[in-house]
Write a structure and sequence with these properties.
7-stranded parallel beta sheet; alpha/beta; homodimer; 5-stranded mixed beta sheet
Chain lengths: 272, 272
C-alpha cells in the first residue's frame, strides 16, 4: 500500500484537516470530520461510513495503530498518510494519542420519515461538545437510536463530539437543524421534556409515559429547554433533586430520564 | 476597600496562583484552589469556606463581577486583587469568563467517623476532571453527600473539577486518598459497585438494595472498577444497555445508579 508523507503545513490537504479539527463550520461546509484513536477507527472500519483517508503519526504511532491504519485503508479503499508529530498534533483532540486518525465523510441527512415514528432524543440548544457526545452515547446505550439537534445546538459531527460519543454515532440516526416546529409537525409519538423548572415528578409519573414512541427534549446548559420547544411538549418532567444542588448536568439528567424509561419498558417495576 | 494591582508575571503571589491553576500537585501541596465565575464565587461567599483572596480581571470584569468581588472580599475579610487580562487569562479555566475568581483554602480532611454510616460515592481511580466534577454534582443532587476518592483518582479540588461540579463541593463531605481496604474496614453500610462486566441487573434488583447506608463504587474510565475495590464489594450491578453501545460514560452510569436508588427510597415504585 502506498503511504504518502505530508511534511509541510502549507499542504492543502493538511490545511483542510486542520480546519476540520478546529472549526465547527468547516465540518459542516466540507461534510467531513476527523476521528482519533484506536476505538473510533475500529468502529468506523466496521461501519458503512466512507473513509477517504487514514492518517498516522509517522514517528509515534504504535504498532497496533499502524496495523489498524493499514487494514482500515485496505478495507475502505482509503489513502494512507504519514504526518510528522508536529503536524499530527495540530489535528489531534488529545495530547497523548496512539497516533492514528481517519477522515470520514458525513452521511447524508436522514429523511424525517426515518425518525417520525421512533424513540428519539432532541438536543435543544445543547452547547458543550463533551455533553453532546455523552448524550449521544447515553441515548444509544438506552436504546434511543435517533438524535435530533435544534439549529442552535452544537454541531454533532465535530471531532470533540465524536470523541465523547465513543462511536455511538455509528449506531444512531442523526439529524441536525431540526426546529421545534418541524418536530411538532412531523413527529407521531409523544413529546416529553426534562425541565428543572417544573412539571411532573418523573418518579411519580405513571408508567404509561414510556408507552409508544417518545421524543425526549433536553435543553441547553444554563437556560434549559427553550420556549419554542416547551410549546410543542406534551408532558414536562422534573427529576426530584436535593435542595443542596441547583440542577443536574444535562447529560446526567438525560441518563436519569432515558434509563427510567428503559426500566419501565423492560418491566423492572413489575418484577419488584 | 484596598485593591492591589499585580502587573508582573514574576509576582510571587501570581506565580503561586498559576501553579494552583495548572498543577494538581500544587493544589494538594498548598492546600488551596481557585474558583472561577459568578456562580462559584457566590456559593463560596455563602459557605463556611476560607477565602483569602478575590481576583478581578482589571479591564474585562463585568459590573456584576466587580460588585460580587467587593462583597465577597468584605464578607470573608479577603484581599482584592486586580490583574491585567494577560495575567488573568493564565489563571482562568475558561476562555471568556466574567472576570472574577477567588482563592479558597481547602477544608481539613474529614474524620472517617463523618462518613462511616452515611450514603457515599467512592471514586475508584476516576481520571477525568470533568467526569469527577459531574459525579460530585450528580451525587449531591441525588442526596448522596459524601464523596470518597481512591489514591489513584484525580484530585477533587482542582479548578477544573470545581468548575464541573458547579458548587456541589460546598454541599458535600469530601475525603481523598481512601483505599478500598480503609473503606472496607471503616464503613458500616453496604458496599455496591457499578460494573459493566457483570453482576446483577440493576433494574431487576430487589428494592432492598437501597436500604440502610450505601456506598456506591464507580470505576475509572476504561478499566472500570479495580480488583481491590471489587474485593470489598457486597453486591455488583450492571446497567442493562443496548448491544449497539459498549458502555456508558462513568458520570452517566452514576446518574442512573444513584437516581435509581433515590427513586426506590422516595417510594416511586409503590406509587406506580
Amino acid at each position: 500500500m502506498t503511504e504518502m508523507l505530508i511534511e509541510s503545513e502549507a499542504n492543502a490537504r493538511f490545511k483542510r484537516w486542520r480546519r476540520l479539527a478546529g472549526e465547527s463550520r468547516a465540518v459542516k461546509k466540507e461534510g467531513a470530520t476527523l476521528l482519533e484513536g484506536i476505538h473510533l477507527t475500529q468502529v468506523a472500519r466496521d461501519s458503512e461510513a466512507a473513509i477517504p483517508a487514514v492518517i498516522l503519526d509517522a514517528e509515534r504511532a504504535t504498532a497496533e495503530a499502524r496495523a489498524l491504519a493499514r487494514e482500515t485503508a485496505g478495507r475502505k479503499g482509503a489513502r494512507l498518510f504519514l504526518l510528522p508529530p508536529a503536524l499530527y498534533d495540530q489535528l489531534s483532540p488529545v495530547e497523548h494519542g496512539v497516533g492514528v486518525m481517519c477522515e470520514m465523510t458525513l452521511p447524508k441527512a436522514p429523511s424525517s420519515e426515518l425518525w417520525a415514528d421512533r424513540d428519539l432524543l432532541y438536543l435543544d440548544g445543547v452547547q458543550d461538545a463533551g455533553n453532546a457526545g455523552t448524550l449521544i452515547r447515553t441515548a444509544v446505550a438506552a436504546g434511543v437510536r435517533v438524535i435530533l439537534a435544534s439549529p442552535t445546538a452544537v454541531n454533532l459531527w465535530t471531532p470533540k463530539v465524536m470523541r465523547a460519543a465513543m462511536g455511538a454515532h455509528f449506531g444512531a440516526v442523526i439529524a441536525e437543524g431540526v426546529t421545534a416546529d418541524t418536530l411538532a409537525r412531523v413527529y407521531r409519538g409523544t413529546v416529553l421534556a426534562a425541565d428543572a423548572r417544573g412539571g411532573e415528578d418523573l418518579f411519580l409519573a405513571s408508567d404509561s409515559y414510556a408507552e409508544g414512541a417518545v421524543a425526549w427534549i433536553m435543553g441547553a446548559e444554563g437556560p434549559g429547554v427553550s420556549a419554542a420547544a416547551l410549546a410543542v411538549t406534551h408532558r414536562r418532567f422534573y427529576i426530584p433533586i436535593e435542595a443542596a444542588c441547583e440542577s443536574l448536568n444535562v447529560a446526567a439528567a438525560a441518563a436519569v430520564c432515558l434509563f427510567d424509561m428503559r426500566r419501565c419498558r423492560l418491566g423492572g417495576t413489575e418484577s419488584r
